[in-house]
Amino acid sequence: MLRSRPDIVLLVLDTQRADRLSCYGYARATSPHLDALAADATRFEVAFACSQWTMPSHGSLFTGRYPHEHGLVQSRSVLPPTLPTLAERLAAGGYATAAFCNNPLVGVINNGLRRGFQSFLNYAGLLTSRPNQAGPRSGPVGRYRQFFKRTLAALLGRLQDSFARSDVLLALSFTPLMVPLWQTALSFKGNTGRSLTHATRLLVERRGLAPGQPAFVFINLMGTHAPYHPLPHHLQRFAPHVPGDHDARRYLRRFNSDIYGWLAPLATPLGPGDKATLDGVYDAEVAGQDEQVGRFLAQLRASGALDRTLLIVCADHGDHLGEKQLVGHSFAAFNEVVRVPLLVRDPSGDLPRGTVREEPVSLRRVFHTALAAAGLADEPERALSLAVSRSSGEDAVFVEADPPANVVELLRRRQPSLLSQYAYDEPCRAAIAGGYKLITFGVRRRALYSLRDDMAETTDLQHVLPERVEALEELLDAHLAPGTPPVLALERAPEDDPAVRKRLHDLGYLE
Predict the structure, then answer these.
(1) Residue 141 pLDDT more than 50?
(2) Are 385 and 100 in contact (CB under 8 A)?
(3) Which residue has better confidence, 510 or 382?
(4) Whose C-alpha in 16, 233, 411, 496 is 20 to 30 A from the C-alpha of 327?
(5) pLDDT one-digit tens code per residue, 148-177
(6) Mind giving me the DSSP string for 92-147?
(7) How do strand 42-44 and strand 320-321 relate by DSSP bridges?
(8) Residues 262, 321 contacting (CB under 8 angstroms)
(9) Half-sphere exposure of residue 39, counting CA atoms within 13 Å on the CB side?
(10) How big is the CA angle at 463 (ends 462 and 468), to the nearest 5 degrees?
(11) 217: closest CA among 312, 358, 123?
(12) How far apart are CA 291 and CA 35, in angstroms?
C-alpha cells in the first residue's frame, strides 16, 4: 500500500548527454536499464538544464530558481541563506534527508548545496566524508576516532575548497605534476558502486528513520565525467579499436591527463580518429554506469521500495565531445551540454508511466515537482510541477551558461584569441520558445536553431528569421530583468506558419 507521502529519489547522472541514451534515439545500445525505466516512466523529450556546469545547475535543481536568481554562478559563490533549498524544505516537512554524492563541487566545496541534508556522504576527495553528521559514537575510543576523522575531513575540505576558489591554486592543479593527484588520491569521480549500495540500504532497510517517515535521497554519479577509464568489456564493445591502436591509446592517455584540455576550445577540429576514440570511450562509460544504475533499480524493485518512490533521473549537464570545436562543458549553451535526460517514475500516477512529453521543460521544475509530491508546495509551486503539462510561466525555457570565471582567466593567459573569436568570455544565454532556440554570447554573437528540424544545431537561422531572433531576445531580456513576472512563450510556433516554412524550404533549410 502506498504511503500518503512517497520517498523521493533525485538521481543526477553528472555529465550525461541525452543524445547518448538509447531511449533518446541513440543508435548504439548504451543504456538498456535506463531504457527500461523510461518505458515505465514519463520521459521528457526536450529537457534543459539551467546551466552548462555543475554548481549553477545544481543550484537550480535545489532551489527551483534560475542561476541569476540563486546566485551560485561561480566557484566562489554561495547560495544565499535566505533561499531555502529542497532538502531544507523537505526536512522541515518531516522528511529524512540524505545525500550520496560523488561530485566534489557539490559535496566538498562549501557553497550551500549541502544545506538541509541531515546525512551527507561525500565519496569524492581525499577520503569519504560525512560533513553533515557525526556518525556513531560508542564510548571514549569511538568519540575520539570520530573527532579525529571529522577534524581531518574538515581540514581536507578547506584545502580542497581553496583549490576551487583560488585562481593560483586552480592553475597549479592543471599542471602535469598535479594530474595524478586529481585522478587517484583525490578520487575525482568518487565511487559509484559504493554510493548506490549505501543509498539502497537506506531506502530498503530504513535504518535511522522513524516508522512511516518518508525519505528524500539525492544521488550524484560521475561515471560519464572525464577522465575516461571504462571497464574492458564495455571498451571492447563500444571502442574495440582502442586497445590495439597505438594512436588511439596515445590520444586517450593524453586526453585523460590533460585537465586543461577538458576546458579549452579546440584550435582546430578534432580529427576523425580522435573523435571516434572520444565517442567510443564516452559510450563505454555510459554503458558502465547504466549497468550499475540497473542493479540499483532492480534492488529497489525487488524490495518493493520502487513502488513507494517518486524517482527523478536527470543530468546536471552534458558534455561536448569535439562538436563545434569544443570539449567538456565550460562554455556555450549548445544542446550537447544543456539538453539533458529527464525521466520521472511517479507512483501516484500524476505523471503517467510509459508516456513521452514533447514540450520543452526546465530542470528547475524538479524542485516544484518534489515539493508537490510531498504535499509541501504552495499554489504557485504546484503550478510548476512537471505533472502540469503546460505551466503558466514555463512555456518559455531559459539557459544561463556563464563561463566559470577562473577558467576564463586561465584561458586568457594561454589562448586569448580563441576566447575572443567565439565570444566564450562573454555571458551566454539561451531562450527556447515557439519551436526555436536562440543562443546569445554577450552582445557579439547570436545563433538561432530549430528544435523541430535541427536538434544537433548545425544550421544557424538568425539571418533567415530575424524577426524570430528579435522576439526571443525580448523574451530573454524580460526574463533577466529584475522584478518582472514570469515570461510566457510566443503565441504561435513559427514553424507552423506556412509562409515561414516556404521561406525555409526555398533557402534549402527544409526538405
Answers:
(1) no
(2) no
(3) 382
(4) 233
(5) 445 444 544 554 555 455 555 555 555 555
(6) HTT-EEEEEE--HHHHTS-SSTTTT-SEEEE-SSSS-B-TT------HHHHHHHHH
(7) unpaired
(8) no
(9) 8
(10) 50
(11) 312
(12) 11
Reported as type and span, the H/E element at residue 59 is helix 54-63
Please tell me what DSSP assigns to residue 23.
G
Query: In 3-state terms, what secondary structure has residue 464?
Result: coil
User: What is residue 438's three-state secondary structure?
Assistant: strand
| Residue 140: cis peptide before it, omega within 30 degrees of 0 | no
What is the model's pTM?
0.88
pLDDT score for 168: 53
Complete DSSP assignment for 402-436: PPPHHHHHHHHHH-HHHHHHHTTTS-EEEEEETTE
Distances (CA, A) of 141 to 54, 133, 136, 238, 425: 39, 18, 11, 50, 53
Q: Given CA atoms 409, 415, 416, 419 in this order, what sign does their dihedral have?
A: negative
Question: What is the grid cell recorded at 324?
Answer: 563545434
User: One-letter amino acid identity for 135?
Assistant: G
For the chain, list the domains and their CATH numbers: 7-390 (3.40.720.10), 395-511 (3.30.1120.10)
| H helix count then E strand count, the chain | 19, 17
Helix crossing, 246-257 with 272-303: angle to 10°?
A: 70
Check whether 266 has a pLDDT greater than 50: yes
pLDDT in tens, 49-94: 999 999 999 999 999 999 999 999 998 899 999 999 999 999 999 9
